[in-house]
């Protein structure tokens, strides 16, 4: 505290301290002394605490982790009781989730520090319990909003790198999985640094709305049709012509068994087409499959060969790990992790909570597999 000949402005003079209660992972600090200035405390920078912060960041992170594991707000109160030795009010616990939601909103729009050459995109549907404008009075005399179940979809993009890293790089909650929704999604991805110059392959599952948006935002980029979905869709077009019924069974059970055998056989043979990553072998196997099944299942064969060329685009470059990019299975496995949390929760109370859970699951998966964060710091 060097004394100078000229007077320092008031904003540079310490002026005692004020006390604050701070909840930490080690318990509650009842009297924390926070230094203050003679003037300009509202404009000063805060390195460790924010101006009105009452909860230590590691504790906030732990509370957010418990929240994503499916604890309700009241369960979160009891969880924090063992650490703090005091019961937080519901509004205070609500601020935990609000802090998380603010972090999610910021992270969604941060530019990418490393743009992946391959991107897998798809959507996962969720149920939300949204408050309506209509209200009612409950038994305790409180006025509450009527809540209704609504369906929504989280559009997501997973980046894949040549060294095998894969991570969620963007997501957006929409009411529909249509062209307009995908255009808004790619608009945000473009702002984060994804362009036709940075990306050479985009994997899709066949959703009709995503292709026009890609033509607008990512012209010239190769589109990879997911081979798993291509094979899975065969069963939706089976006609079961010329079935050979097994002997010794009544007609109805025999027909059911013959249909199941037909489905398993045609799907198994179709799956073997993509067992190798050689384009000539794949084409040879596909043609043999066509000759085997076209007479009895013409519709299924015709649908399989519709956009068949798009299933081979992953071979256009010498990607070191082609098994990671010819399907959307990496993204589907992440969706299954997210759905597991959704089943534990039952129904998301609103869209912000849903996106917060999605963000934390994505962050947890990245940390679990030792993948570095790829977004620039805010």
Description:
The structure is a single chain. The mean pLDDT is 85. It contains 11 helices and 7 strands. With 378 residues, it is an alpha/beta fold. A hairpin with a 5-residue loop joins strand 4 (143-160) and strand 5 (166-174). The strands form 2 sheets. The protein has a 5-stranded mixed β-sheet with strand order 5-4-3-6-7. Helix 1 packs across helix 3 (90-109), helix 4 packs parallel to helix 5 (210-217) and helix 7 packs antiparallel against helix 8 (279-293).
Assembly form of the protein = single chain
Order of helices and strands: EEHHHEEEHEHEHHHHHH
- Low-pLDDT runs of 5+ residues are none
> What's the story with the biggest beta sheet?
5 strands, mixed
Count of helix runs: 11
Cα radius of gyration in angstroms: 28 Å
Give the integer mean of the pLDDT values: 85
Percentage of β-strand residues: 15-25%
Gap between N and C termini = 33 Å
In the sheet with the most strands, the strands line up as: 5-4-3-6-7
The secondary-structure class comes to alpha/beta
Measured as a percent range, the helix fraction is 40-55%
By DSSP, the count of extended strands is 7
**Which geometry do the CA atoms define?**
elongated
Give a quick set of tags describing it:
11 helices, two-stranded antiparallel sheet, 378 residues, five-stranded mixed sheet, elongated, alpha/beta
